[in-house]
Amino acid sequence: MYLGTFDASPFLRYLTYLMDSEDIEQILEHLNEFKDNLSPGEIEAITQFLEHANQEGYLSEAQVALLQKFYIGEEDVTEEDLQGLLQLFGGADLWKTEDGIIWKPVTLNGFDNSNNYGFRTMQYAPGALFVGASNPWQGCEVFKARQPTTLVDPKTATLYIDADRNSVISPGDTIKYTAEIINVGEVTREDATFSDTVDPQTTLICDVPNQPTTTHGTVTSCDSTSGTLTVDIGDIDPGVTVTITFYVIINQDAQGEVANQGVTTGTNFPNSLTDDPNAKEPDTPTRTPLGKPVGGIIMSANKFKVLTPYLVIILIGFIIAAIANKKNKKTD
Fold this sequence. Notes:
five-stranded antiparallel sheet, Immunoglobulin-like, six-stranded antiparallel sheet, alpha+beta
């Protein structure tokens, strides 16, 4: 939910035409008197708020310094300070909340334009919110607020079984997919469900020991014929990572590449597609080219089978060297 405000501060620039210097001095006097009468508890509360706002990135160092002078600094507030306040905070505010309790600012200065003194029109569109600003000096400006990210879900593919032992991803090999679903928001994501349909050039493995697994919730369905997988995750608390793994065998007639992308759905967040962490664009399927080397024998999960020929060769070499060394000793 978004909330826009109206801020009359842009009109304060015209006070000099309506007020004389004595009036301005009287305003400053009242401001300084208010500051001097703050209790220690009020000063401490303001200090903590400013520190928190700076740490969270809501306020810049310049904004914090000015507000400190306005509220808790020992120096008197001047007319220049008033002008500085208008420059840093002039313009309408736009706030957002996910739970109706905790509010965070989208902008505190009319999107860096103090002439935008109010947000009067908001129009929702899929994935975005369009905001119209009241601006009697420059005309209406329209801004687009993108839907906040709630889940981050990278998915990786690794060679699990190199069936032909050629260190190349090819038909007959087994790929392991690992999807991480991370709640980067500040509220619990409710009733989350992960579903995936594997590439038609692959076959989903549903039998032990390589059946799908999840660190949260339950794997509710796995169908090798249709290649579909469903995981009932349940609620995902803030900061929690759900890891889902499953395996596919590359079909013998597969060509080009195999691709995979799952989706997480729920009741209080938009659908979230898994993403290839190596891709530049967001929400990209995880693609695996066929016939591409994977960095040698260490990429295989079944390392012992792949290493066996090399170990045998090394062992034979040691035996030959030992026999030769023994013969040399007898000759001597």
